[in-house]
Amino acid sequence: MARSTARKRALNTLYEADEKGQEILSLLAERLLRPGAQTPLPDYAIDLVRGVAEHLHTIDNALDDHSTGWKINRMAVVDRNILRIAAWEIVFNPDVPDRVAIDEALSLAKTLSDSDAPAFIHGLLSAVSTDKEQILIADSKRAESEQTDSEQTDSDSAEGVESESNHTLAQGRETEKETDIDSLPFPTLAPDVAADSATSAPLPKASAESSDDDTPCNA
Fold this sequence. Notes:
With 219 residues, this protein is mainly α. It has nine helices and no strands.
């Protein structure tokens, strides 16, 4: 299937997700499971949708930074998703020449948007193309930051589990010491205590699970 058709199908999916306020990959999963058209999504359309979803933060920031008119949240839904597709191709897909990505975006805009959109889209994508190396650097830094945050979260979570485990273990040891009184021979106790102990029920063993402390929360 021609890539022009794949771009249009990708645009359909991105537009729908944007209009519904639905996560892009969530809608894509639905479309792959239950295609809304007679033919399944082409492979390249899937690549486009996944690529935009993966780099959405970087793409939107780049479009905002290079737009001299409307910010992306104020653009028409169809326009911003045409821009997202083309920006992904320009910055993240070296197999597609920048000129082709821009021309394909203009073709979609001429068909689906108003008469002012093509000129605006052309200027914005040209600026993205000129600055794509810096956009890639920004994306790399963002990915590294997210990785660091994820590792810190995992570390905090592991420390919380270990702390909870150690707390429970300490409680268990305390319980063993407290319940040892049941096994003491009566001669080691005072006569009145021995007499009471002989006629009373054994002390209940403290549960290792009981505690007034809050369970540490995972980060």
